[in-house]
Structures are given as C-alpha cells and as structure tokens.
# Entry
Amino acid sequence: MIRCPKCGKNFRNADSVILDVNYTFTHAGCYEHDYMSKDQGRFVDLVGKYSAFEGNIVHRFFASY
Ligand SMILES: [Zn+2]
# Structure
C-alpha cells in the first residue's frame, strides 16, 4: 500500500496528488513547495501514466486488493 509521506494516509484512486522528480507521491494538500513537482493529477491517473517507471509500485498497489 502506498502512503503519503506527509500525513501517513493511504492514497485513494480519486485523490489529487503530486508526483515529484523522485517518483514519490504526495497529496496535493500535503505538498510542500520546496520539493520539485514532476506532475499532478488524480492518483489513479498518475499511477497508470508512470507505470512504465514504477511498475513495482503499481504491482504492490493492486496486489493489496
Ligand atoms: Zn497526505
């Protein structure tokens, strides 16, 4: 399960999230502006978009259901 490093809550598919340059997901509302933002959108969309880079995370995420 992927959790937000700021608030510790699990991401839901419809959550608005930030993906930083290290491919770390953070809630948009938890995001601190001293980090470099790579992309922003719904969690489920970004997971699909970057699955080529983070296939292991996608696998863990969907395997948890
Ligand atoms: Zn959060």
Q: What stands out?
A: The chain has a mean pLDDT of 80. The chain has two helices and three strands.
